């Protein structure tokens, strides 16, 4: 349900044109049948109108025998093949060769190194065997096109957690006295950012790289409880 789920969210919720490719024509039929079923259910529940369902379905195009060549003019592709290293590397080599240099190549992998996938894309796009280095500007640009974009299954019913969802989950599930976002507000977001920077500078480990969101909040003066606003608003009566 992963491929059709991603396509469904793109066509129905994001209202974007979606192109689907699978080597198995039988899988394509199953995917379209499931999408039709989901759309029908949404109409029955009154969540969308029948006209909206038809518009969403019309946004979906099946890529035929041309395969990845059918993605040449697209801005972004999301790969959702099975967790097979050789298969994914082969796919990304083809995608890097066929798609525009500025197109984003995203993988839904949950276990394979994005760096390894990006290296395959670089090798194909810039033919490293002929002397283009991964550290060159060309190499960096190619690697920067490759991102990890993991969708949890089933995609259509997975939502985005709110700050309260995150804090409540940790309090109830891990028996923490307060959630991590509330705790960060009490510590001070500027202090949290400073700690992350020290850890990242000292170790070089990407898991300590400061969050862009945290940096923006500190720049805005949202430092947590001491400033009256952080992840939560403490100025509300």
CATH homologous superfamily designation of the largest domain: NAD(P)-binding Rossmann-like Domain
- From the helix content, strand content and strand pairing, which structural class follows? mainly alpha
**Strand arrangement, largest sheet?**
3-4-5
Calculate Rg over CA atoms: 22 Å
- Which H/E pattern describes the elements? HEHHEEHEHHEHHHH
N- to C-terminal separation? 46 Å
Which residues sit in consecutive blocks of at least 5 with pLDDT less than 50? none
* CATH first level of the largest domain: Alpha Beta
Named at the architecture level, the CATH assignment of the largest domain is 3-Layer(aba) Sandwich
CATH structural fold name of the largest domain? Rossmann fold
Helix content: 40-55%
Give a brief description:
The protein is mainly alpha-helical and 237 residues long. It has ten helices and five strands. It has two domains: 1-148, NAD(P)-binding Rossmann-like Domain (Rossmann fold, 3-Layer(aba) Sandwich); 163-227, N-(1-d-carboxylethyl)-l-norvaline Dehydrogenase, domain 2.
How would the blueprint of this fold be written?
Elements: H1 2-13, E1 18-20, H2 25-45, H3 50-58, E2 60-62, E3 76-79, H4 85-98, E4 104-107, H5 114-126, H6 137-143, E5 146-148, H7 163-174, H8 180-187, H9 189-203, H10 212-219
Parallel strand pairs: 1-2, 3-4, 4-5
Helix pairs in contact: 1-2, 4-5, 5-6
Task: Give a description of the structure.
- This protein is mainly alpha-helical and 237 residues long.
- It folds into two domains: 1-148, Rossmann fold, CATH 3.40.50.720; 163-227, N-(1-d-carboxylethyl)-l-norvaline Dehydrogenase, domain 2 (Orthogonal Bundle), CATH 1.10.1040.
- It is built from ten helices and five strands, in the order αβααββαβααβαααα.
- The chain has helices at residues 2-13, 25-45, 50-58, 85-98, 114-126, 137-143, 163-174, 180-187, 189-203, 212-219, and strands spanning 18-20, 60-62, 76-79, 104-107, 146-148.
- The strands form two sheets. A three-stranded parallel sheet has the order 3-4-5, with helices on one face. Strands 1-2 form a two-stranded parallel ribbon.
- The model has no long low-confidence stretch (mean pLDDT 88).
